[in-house]
Amino acid sequence: MTTTPELAPTSSLITTLPGTSYTDPETFRQEQEKIFERLWFCAVRSADLDKPGAFRTVQVGRESVLITRNRKGELRAFLNICRHRGARLCTEESGENRRNLQCPYHAWTYDFDGKLVAAPNLTSMPDIDRTERGLVTVPLREWLGYAWVCLADEPPSFEDTVIGAAVERLGDAAHIERYRTEGLALGKRITYDVAANWKLIIENFMECYHCATIHPELTDVLPEFADGFAAQYYVGHGAEFAPEAEGFTVDGKGGFGRLPEIAEDQDRRYYAITVRPQVFVNLVPDHVIVHRMFPMAADRTVVECDWLYLPEVVESGADVSSSVELFHRVNQQDFEACERTQPAMDSRAYRDGGVLVPSEHHIGAFHRWVTEQLAGEGA
Ligand code: FES
Ligand code: FE
After folding, report:
1. Element (H, E) at 326
2. Which SUPFAM superfamilies does UniProt cross-reference here (predicted)?
3. Is the Cβ atom of 311 under 6 angstroms away from ligand 1?
4. Model confidence pLDDT, tens digit, residues 279-298
5. Is the pLDDT of residue 228 over 80?
6. Which atom from ligand 1 is nearest to the alpha carbon of 86?
7. Quick check: CB of 110 below 6 Å from ligand 1?
8. ipTM of this predicted complex?
9. What is the pLDDT of residue 47?
10. Structure pTM?
11. Which DSSP string corresponds to 11-58?
């Protein structure tokens, strides 16, 4: 038998944000400035940059951020802008610079720590301070094997705003640490280009009301989700696997054995965490699924989803497809639902928004959080 936490009935209806919040370009611009450019943003999986000079560029708010590895093997993040005349330095999404970072316009050259090291006729410009004219550094922290960057002049506490999300959800940070996500290997990555506003994707992820309707494979493994309650948002609660499910797979087959450090009470359970503003982490006994959202426009969000397993599982060439397929289907079902909703946000029928069922008070809290951030009241 599975258990569902008790839900306190509430009499007052919670309404959603108004429809224009999901379509208005000016609202999106404000969100870029006041949310994505102020908070820690999960940019890249650290192991993707596997050697000095390997780089990835990502859109963070209105800025392009370049993340690379220096000669000492440390990750560095910079605004992807040449300090000479402002040309975009790296135009590719990813790649490898073998010797240094050279601007394709007039060949100003920076080392992997961002220092200006060469420029044509630099000797004729004695007033150029090479340190002053280096690339603009962006603060970077690593957690769960990912590089998080922050464009704020004074970044908020990483411990409170990022790690704190796991503590808030799971009761303590040790819970997530036991999955040792930073030591896992990439078994599969799928990128989804979703024609929907980023908030619809977050709300959908936090919601369980739709599970019985659109996620038959998921509710086979996690029967309590079929009740429509967002059980994953009760502190410390993990949804229990169905007795007949051997693993978190599309066909109920066994997975790859428990990750070595997770506790007995974490076994055969699914935990989901939202790290605002753009990360979802799913924890199951033998793998971890990490979604990073990249909001590109009011009506477009790119989602990169990683399935992470023990290195020996990936190195052995084991078939991970039945566990990948389960959440890939969930993603497709969720994103299709978001894309069906997006065009209606502009309708006069949705001018004042919609309603949330009482068990979704945490989605109401998300809406309040967005509103506070835009009013400049949030951290
Ligand atoms: Fe980059 Fe001139 S703009 S070298
Ligand atoms: Fe869903």
Report:
1. helix 321-341
2. Bet v1-like (SSF55961), ISP domain (SSF50022)
3. no
4. 999 999 999 999 999 999 99
5. no
6. 3
7. no
8. 0.97
9. 98
10. 0.94
11. -S-EE---GGGGT-HHHHHHHIIIIITTS-EEEEEGGGS-STTEEEEE
